[in-house]
Amino acid sequence: MALEDVVRPNAGGRSIAVAVAAVPLLFVVSGLAIRYAAFASVSEEPGFAAYARALCRWDCAWYIGISEQGYERFPIPNHSNVGRWGFFPLYPMLVAAIRIVFPFQTILVATITSIICSYAACLVAWPLLEKNMRAYVLYCAFLLSGPFSFHFTTFLTEPLFVLLTSCVFLALKRSSYLAAGISSALLSATRLVGVLVVFATVIQMFREHRQQGGSTLSFPRWVLGRPDLLVAILISPAGLFAYILFLYLTVGDGFAFLHVQRAFGRVAGNPLVFLCDGLSAVPTTGWLPTAPQWSALAAVTGLALSAVLVVRRQYGAALFCALCIILPLITNLASMVRYVVGLAPLTMLLAALLSASRLTYLAALALFLGACYFLTVAWTGGYLALV
């Protein structure tokens, strides 16, 4: 369903289908070339395996551990007291399943799988971008050859999260609520905030009900009279509930994924205080913003783009993106840049805005490709803002 507009050419549309499939493939190749050049500039070890290992930074190591060894039962002698439970299981499970068929190093399998997921996410984005070729080119460039493309091409959850998020919103665009519910269930097993997409589903249902002449008060009765809608809503958090049950049976704490956050330095607080502290963390030397400033700016930018989605009457996407920013912001600013760039509705909106004129389109494309090299060097060097 998600790739229908690409794989089903109509009269005269075959060349467009080929272009839609070829554009992200082109950026897969260019992205690999740029990131490998950045890797080669700071490493003396050649080869794709060394490149894949070099890009496996921060949370990537946790996902490799889950994929190879599963979740530990605390306590384990001579191991860290920080468990893997805070990292959700779907993507490590997928990589582990693929590794059974292709028995290569985990990071190699995960890197290729991430690239495939990001490529598929681009194809799903084509109808969501209203078949705007400029916006589509920018979006593909951003994911696969852009300044943060290492997030979408290594063993992190962003590739699968973006793909499933796009599938949910494409299904909602077509009123395919059961497909949206299944994608939502998978999304909730990928990252905790994935469960929040159910609100977008309910909002789309409400909009459809109103378009059919229904009233606000009659909406609950209308939903109860539609088994497909009820199933779509009820199965949306199934991935999260399955993980809670697994943790309860194996660890004894169904909410271990929340309780372990304290070990990572995530403690609930006032998000406005975190933002103010981040913005005020001025650099002591030089002019480049500090890592807390980048994180705070990313959060502010993400919330501003969510407001633009509201102006464009994309209420479900706006609420989902805003909640996905605010929820982690309640603990601290860590990983905020990655969280914001991994929200597909925001990056699609940014691509659409930048494609409005030929000048901004070309400038953004050049900026994306150029920044890919320098930020890849920063990522391999452990720059904290990119965590």
From TrEMBL:
UniProt keyword annotations, A-Z: Membrane, Transmembrane, Transmembrane helix
Lineage top rank: taxon: Bacteria
Residues spanning the membrane: 16-38, 82-102, 108-129, 136-157, 177-203, 229-249, 294-311, 318-341, 361-386
Keyword presence, DNA-binding: no
Protein name: Mannosyltransferase PIG-V
Organism: Mesorhizobium tianshanense
